[in-house]
Amino acid sequence: MFKRFMRAMEALEALMGIIQPVQCQESIPVQDSVGRVLSVDIVSAVDLPEFNRAAMDGYAVRSSDARGASTTNPVYLHLDENCTQVRTGMVVPDNFDAVVMLEETFLRGNQVEVMGEVHPFRNVSRIGEDIAVGDLIFKEGHKIRPPDIALLAALGIKEASVYTRPNIAIIPTGGELVAIAARSLLPGEAYEINGLMARLYAEKWGSLATVHDIVPDDPELIRKAVVSNLDADMIILIGGTSVGEKDYAPKVLMELGDLLVHGVRIQPGKPTAFGRVQGKPVVCLPGYPVAALSDLYLFVRPALKKLAHLDDAVPKTTARLARKIASKPGYLGIVRVKIEGEMAIPIMTSGAGILSSVARADGFVIVPEELEGIEAGEMVEVTTIE
Question: Which candidate, 39, 254, 281, 271, places its Cα nearest to that of 161?
Fold first, then answer.
């Protein structure tokens, strides 16, 4: 029987309670920092711009010399004496304080006919107008985006101090498993795909991940695999999580550390376990692919995001349910759906091993524990499968 059976949200709280964000830091080139999280505040050491800069093509002038200028009452200025030609981005000489747009001037020999009045610093980007020395650019915990990198580069910042990505060790177990494409399958065998799926999602969600060689259904070998990966920030153990004769994962967790959760009221994904070994969180996923995917979204994703100092903003949409979906009362139902126009079409409400149903799905609908299902025509929230 399941030893620590609980509701989905209780299980999530238990898992998140043992997750501590990584604290290790590294300095990396700014141009390689997109998607990373700053580990320190960034404060500007320079002004941007560092000089008075022309914001338009035209002529730099003293605004007082162009007072009252208009198309009917132009002002004439001597080139290189009372004005100088500038292009966008050029330095505005110290003795000038404005730029007349090229469209409002006409060059007549060595004289510039000015047909537009300007006030002080018109069409001039002043020193420090964008960023001033001492300005806080980004706070610790900020996730770096491409425009942020452009700003940092404009400030002459070459390196960013960021949190290291969490290291995730993925350990697939099962005597029936064969490494992908290693050989043709025999009856009763299957390719080890859950480890691949978990690795791809771990990397997508901000971590580094390594997949351990397949471990047979042997408690001693599973124990050794867990112990040998305790340098990771989290261990994901796949398979052997239920209550059968060869479901050793929960037992190994109890022997090595703490078994916090064993059995969760979700469908699919009931045989799920969480624990802790020498302070490191261990997540045990079911061997059925769809159940493993459900756990990845419900539990692993928020845990990895917290480890990596990232917000867990799950992409969602709304749609009208095309057909009624049923769910077991007392269990959180996870139903795969396909989106067609404004409709959410259920694909399968059971079958934790039918991976093709996920490949055909655009997302899933979560049915709360207190409901027996959702009627056709109701608006539902669909969590997008990335």
Answer: 39
